[in-house]
Design brief:
6 strands, single chain, 13% helix, flat
Length: 78
Amino acid sequence: MAKKTMYRRLVKEDGTKAVTFEGKLHNWEGPALIPEGDISKAEYYIYGIQYSKEEWKSAINDHTGLPWYKTPGILERF
């Protein structure tokens, strides 16, 4: 049986948007929290840890946070 991913996209009444993964704010594709729908106040999270936009971009490029077996440098299976 395949394991389901636990991503949830939430929208509150005040317009706040959030993306969670297994109960933690997390989004590889953009901001994980947009307070009151205002993109200028966007907050970036990876596995529940808050990053600035620049730190988040470098983490995306470096694949920081990925386990060693998911890095693109490993092509063989042991």
